[in-house]
């Protein structure tokens, strides 16, 4: 089973590692515009061979794990090149633009739109780890538009890697993921920015920061190469979440200005039930 | 060495556990307005005995680990009651109001203003853990106003518990801690609120949330009993941080509205160096 991984970073590399472990017959081919990444992936044993895009004609599986704008740019070329029995899936954090892009392609049925909710704040092949996907949710969009046999092939991979599947339409996916993922990244980046701006001349101040601050700004370490395209693709939804977030922060500030600490207490108490909601998210 | 811990929750309880382990001669007395907490602390072996406030006349050490407004209310009574050789320290997240409150007390020299930057999002005696303070920063304010022998006594405890000490005046402490701690809590609470409001009728949506969301809203599990008084005490500084945070979020939203994704990329790239800053914070 020839598996081509296009983009051999954290996400693609972690797929490569797990698929190799779960399927004896898998041979992993890495495609990446960075020769350095490819060499590192080979050296680390993340891939078996370096390859180029035209070679995907011999692939049984193609996994596209590059920024969402780059995926939109090459998805039709990939579908043009693959054989009739090849499954192509991507793993991007937005799904609507991509589903639109492939909608009328002759080989639409070779494509499966997936979004495994997994990752870390690190990037590159050296960040790839085993079992990244175990116990994680994988959102699959427009499953009915993928050929039945290729759906099965995809589910076999996702299931051996330990993922649980949720089906969703791409418009709902993009709207909800703006709340539970994209907004978190912006809140974290802007928190980091606010503190760095204020404290840039006072290095010692970060000695005062504890694990709470570290946890809240963790996502501000994320790669802009990945995230700028996501925000661009999901612009309307993300702007809406930002408006609501800013409105809530402004209201909190106004309660403080009015010395209404009873209401502030209540706001926090009400939000505490995030504890229950978060149960089960590692 | 009779050690009285006033407020036997996460913070006070964790001090009790570590002091007992580090000082053979320590006997831990728990004082708490909740009989249930006291019984639980006794049952868990966090304290050796239950006690009441008047008994602190026999204390060698008093640790006040209750919400900052409650500390301000009782600190002078505590100082009235303790013996001349007793060290009293608190562990609250704001220091200015407390230092003002004790400024003219006869026993000002018995008091040490401390703020160990340690904790978890859990609370109560069952949340108390060993080694919570190991490797953590402890900010000490107005050290020169504490009697020399009692400074030494305090440092002996902090040092055996593995804390590193930073000295700071209470006004600077409250200003900087607003950025590196208090703002993180509000950003997290309001993120939790925004997502819960939006998704309250769609429980399945939280299946989509990953570890990034969990990390960013972790602090929204924190106790309002502890945090509402902190925001009240540090009102001016916290409002200032909120203004700057809201301004940065608004600017980010405007960049998105203008489709200026190059600038958005740059903002994120610039903030990425939080990686370096966070090194060393666990």
From TrEMBL, chains A, B:
Cross-referenced Pfam families: PDH_C (PF20463), PDH_N (PF02153)
EC number of the protein: 1.3.1.12
Record keywords: Oxidoreductase
Enzyme class name: oxidoreductase
Domain Prephenate/arogenate dehydrogenase: 1-282
Keyword Oxidoreductase part of the UniProt annotation: yes
InterPro entries recorded: 6-PGluconate_DH-like_C_sf, NAD(P)-bd_dom_sf, PDH_C, PDH_N, Preph/Arog_dehydrog, Prephen_DH
GO MF terms held by the record: prephenate dehydrogenase (NAD+) activity
UniProt xrefs under Gene3D superfamilies: 6-phosphogluconate dehydrogenase C-terminal like domain, NAD(P)-binding Rossmann-like Domain
Name this polypeptide is given: Prephenate dehydrogenase
Lineage: Bacteria, Pseudomonadati, Bacteroidota, Flavobacteriia, Flavobacteriales
């Amino acid at each position: 089973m020839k598996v081509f991984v296009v983009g051999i970073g954290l996400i693609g590399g972690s797929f490569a590692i797990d698929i190799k472990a779960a399927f004896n017959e898998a041979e992993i081919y890495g495609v990446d515009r960075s020769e350095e990444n490819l060499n590192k992936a080979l050296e680390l044993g993340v891939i078996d061979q370096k390859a180029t895009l035209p070679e995907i004609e011999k692939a049984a599986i193609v996994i596209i794990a590059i920024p969402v704008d780059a995926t939109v740019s090459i998805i039709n070329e990939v579908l043009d090149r693959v054989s009739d029995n090849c499954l192509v899936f991507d793993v991007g954090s937005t799904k609507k633009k991509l589903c639109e892009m492939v909608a009328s392609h002759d080989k639409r049925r070779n494509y499966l739109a997936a979004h495994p909710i997994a990752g870390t704040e690190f990037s590159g092949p050296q960040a790839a780890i085993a079992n990244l996907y175990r116990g994680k949710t994988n959102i699959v969009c427009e499953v009915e538009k993928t050929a039945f046999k290729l759906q099965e092939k995809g589910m076999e991979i996702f299931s051996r890697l330990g993922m649980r599947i949720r089906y969703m339409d791409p418009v709902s996916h993009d709207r909800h993921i703006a709340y539970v993922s994209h907004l978190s990244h912006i809140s974290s980046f802007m928190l980091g920015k606010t503190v760095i701006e204020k404290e840039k001349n006072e290095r010692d101040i970060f000695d005062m920061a504890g694990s709470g601050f570290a946890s809240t700004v963790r996502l501000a370490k994320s790669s802009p190469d990945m995230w700028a395209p996501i925000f661009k693709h999901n612009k309307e939804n993300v702007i809406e979440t930002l408006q609501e977030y800013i409105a809530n922060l402004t209201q909190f500030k106004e309660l403080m200005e009015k010395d209404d600490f009873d209401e502030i207490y209540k706001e926090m108490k009400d939000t505490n039930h995030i504890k229950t909601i978060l149960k089960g998210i590692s």
